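Second attempt. The first submission of 40S ribosomal protein S7 had a stray character pasted in from the spreadsheet, which I only caught after the job came back as garbage. Lesson logged: always re-copy from the clean sequence file. Corrected sequence (165 aa) follows.
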Amino acid sequence: MSSKIIKPGNAAADEFELQVAQALLELEMNSDLKAQLRELHITKAREIELNNKKSVIIYVPMPKLKQFQKVQTRLVRELEKKFSGKHVVFVGERKILPKPTRKTRAKNKQKRPRSRTLTAVYDAILEDLVFPAEIVGKRIRVRLDGSQLIKVHLDKNQQTTIEHK
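This time the job returned cleanly.
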């Protein structure tokens, strides 16, 4: 098992996760990112297909997310070369705690922090997805059938770097 992937509960990594971990290990061995990548690792990786385009989502532990974001632009560029044009995105491994009810209040002595609520986690994941750019506005359009369309407005300065994604 690669040292670049550490799964919670010592679960076994699947083939794609090992492939991503190996790519990170190769980048650490022969690039100028060696010092920054040495102490970094991932928790899981997923490949999804949306509109006939494949994307790689790499989950990183929350304490290491800031360190990943320091080298993310160069790391994404190198990983996109290795995975032949697939979009690569780094997302923090966040936990959603259930809404406290009368029954669960006895078990949980502590109050649920705002950062563990469903909406806070979803907003933070959205920020991770568009990372080099900043979200400057959000519009939610509720259609007549009840479905929602969320439009996210990004900063104009980084529009060229992230628009193709």
